[in-house]
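To: structure desk
From: M.T.
Subject: fold request, one chain
Message: Could you run this one when you get a chance? Sequence is below, nothing fancy, just the single chain.
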Amino acid sequence: MTAASDGVTPSLRELIALRATAQRRGPARQGRHGASGPASSLLRGRGMEYDESREYVAGDDVRHIDWRLTARSGRTHTKLFQAERERLSLIVADTSPALYFGTRVRFKSVQAARAGAVAVWNAIRDGDRVAAVRGSTLEPPVPPASGPRGALRVLDALVRWYAQPPADDQGLAAALDAAARLLRPGSRLIVLADPNSVAALPNEVWTRLSAHHDVVVLLLFDVLEQTPPADTLAFQSADHRLELDLADSVQRARWQQTFAEPIEQALARLPGRGVRVQSLRADAASDTWLPLLGRPQPQVA
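Reply: Done. Structure tokens follow.
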């Protein structure tokens, strides 16, 4: 049996095989316990656990003053925090019906599962815990766990979620709301999404998430959506046939508005909200986005 899927539904074997792809990107992040052990969080905000309090000295952060102990003792005290040793990498899976489509090599949904698998193996390699969530009222998130067992739980969920559109899909906004209940400051979010799902969300959503977390958004698209033919394009369902005359300027403009503009808008606006973002074509190599993790974190305007 090969690791490849049929391009229509992802297979667990193919997602497991992507471990080697994720491990080719260079040395793992060094943590307190070396490359193979838990790594210190890339802290944003106060991604730390309270350790103890001591008397305030010049230069201490006034935001960490322990007001209760200061009041009791009559002397100013400040809180000390211990950094968390394991970062959480959370896969946020958009399961919009628009993703279950493709014209070359694989569906966008299969590419989403594959890109998610690359993210998972990359996180495990760096000593992170991994978890996953989608917009659902019936299915709970995959809880955070470390090591190969944690990875396999997430990969199994990606296979199920991207085999066919879930009947209870509540959209990307619901997925991000569920994600917020799992996150702690310093977490990394990898959002796998259809560009129109991203376009439907206001800037404030991304600004709020990126204030305390490292947010990466991958925009899944098919080559036909970006470069349609300049003639008649026919679509056939079980009981309906639709023909679009893309040589007509009005029809072509509507096509561009539906498929190309959401990508362009996301690439233009999300970096200004502190989000790393990249488009990922369905037939491209599933690890082409990994260099995005090495770029400087964009600053919120």
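Reply (cont.): DSSP finds ten helices and ten strands in the chain. Let me know if you need anything else for the meeting.
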